[in-house]
Amino acid sequence: MVIRMEEPQDYFNVESMIKRAFWNVNAPGCDEHYLTHCLRRHPDYLPGLSRVLERDGQIIAAVFYTRACLVDDSGYEKEILTFGPLAVEPSFQRQGYGKALLAHTFEAAKAQGYDAIVIFGHPGNYVSRGFVSCRRKNISLKNGAFPAAMLVKELVPGALDSRHWYYRESAAYDVDPAGYDAFDQAFEQYVPKTEPRQEEFYIYSHSALTR
Ligand SMILES: CC(C)(COP(=O)(O)OP(=O)(O)OC[C@H]1O[C@@H](n2cnc3c(N)ncnc32)[C@H](O)[C@@H]1OP(=O)(O)O)[C@@H](O)C(=O)NCCC(=O)NCCS
């Protein structure tokens, strides 16, 4: 197993793997391979922290990091990290590769001076990686809401004191869907389907903690 930075010649294989990993998971079809393509061009994207995982010369997992920000009530801005997409080739899922990729990049992030990560994700994938609800660290959205899927990990214990923060995600994730169809033509085509697991995504992505 080799964990390394992504090179331009990897892009198509990585995007193809991401498409296979996300297809019909959160909704019929997926756009995470297109998101990855757009993310790489954004100034907040962090190629020095993003990684691919190779096994026998094949890329089977990847994670993409971006700068994000916490803002306290006085307007002070703290630079933190977010990541996504995180994807593992379907036939290699649930074998520890996602965990290995996260553990590796958490150490790299600490070495680069970052002390916290906020993500939106399925809690079941992340609580065993040290993520907790943002509610526990008093981190809300700007409107005061605490989405159930908004999770935080302190890379350095105690990095976030008890003050209230709001999370400002990078505009890198505001992808214009207009370019999707042309971009996707280069990839293998699959059938979009409605599946029960998409309801799980709908529920947790529309939920918030109230106390
Ligand atoms: C989510 C994903 C990145 C996880 O990577 P992975 O390599 O499959 O997961 P790992 O084997 O490293 O396990 C990670 C955790 O998942 C959970 N997990 C493992 N096997 C599981 C199973 N069969 N069922 C449910 N949860 C399981 C565990 O909490 C595990 O942590 P543990 O090792 O402490 O028990 C990967 O499955 C994937 O690409 N899924 C599709 C795309 C996606 O949903 N990406 C994340 C968006 S939030």
What brief labels describe this structure?
211 residues; alpha+beta; Aminopeptidase; six-stranded mixed β-sheet; three-stranded antiparallel β-sheet; binds coenzyme A
Give a verbal description of the structure.
- With 211 residues, the protein is of the alpha+beta class.
- It has one domain (2-169, 199-205): Aminopeptidase, CATH 3.40.630.
- The chain is 25% helix and 25% strand.
- It is built from 6 helices and 9 strands.
- It has helices at residues 11-22, 32-39, 97-111, 123-126, 180-184, 197-205; strands at residues 2-4, 51-55, 58-72, 77-88, 116-120, 132-133, 139-140, 150-154, 165-168.
- The strands form 2 sheets. Strands 1, 2, 3, 4, 7 and 9 form a 6-stranded mixed β-sheet that branches. The protein has a 3-stranded antiparallel β-sheet with strand order 5-8-6, with no helix packed on it.
- Helix 1 runs antiparallel to helix 2 (32-39).
- It starts with a strand and ends in a 6-residue tail after the last helix.
- It binds coenzyme A.
- Coenzyme A binds at residues 21-22, 25, 86-88, 93-99, 121-122, 124-125, 128.
